[in-house]
Amino acid sequence: MLIGHFTEQPWQDDNTGLMGNQSLDLGISNQLYDPMQGAKLYNRYIDEKIFAEEMGFDGLMLNEHHSTPFCMQGVTNVGASILARVTNKAKIIILGNILPIWDDPLWLAEQLAMIDMISYGRLVSGFVRGGGRESVAHNAPPHYNRERFEEAHDFIIKAWTDPGPFRWEGKHYHYRYVNPWARPLQKPHPQIWIPSTVSVETVEWTARHRYPLVLLATKLGPTKDAFDLYHKTATESGYESGTQNVAYLFKVHVDESEELADEVGRKYLSGVSNPFLSGNEGTVNPAIMSLPGHTSRRSKRLAATAFGPLGRLGTNRRPYEEQVKDYTIISGTPKTVLPKIKHVLEYLRPGSIFFWDGDGAMSHEDSMRSLRLMGEEVIPAVREMGQELELNSPFEIDPVTNQPFAAEVNEPVIPNKVVAKSPAPASAD
Amino acid sequence: MATAATAGTEEVIEAAGVQLHVVKGGSGSPLVILHDELGHPGWLPFHDALAQRYTVHLPMHPGFGVTERVEWIMSMRDIAGWYLEAFDDLRWEQVPVLGYGLGGWLAAEMASMCPQQFSKLVVVSAPGIRPPSGEIFDMFLVVFKDYVTKGIFDPENSAGFQSAYGGDPTPEEADARDYAREEASRLTWRPYMHYPNLPPLLHRLKRIPTLVVWGREDTIVPLSAGEAYQAAIPGSRLVVLDRCGHHPHIEQPETFVQHVQEFLNT
Question: pTM, whole model, 2 decimals?
Answer without folding.
Answer: 0.93
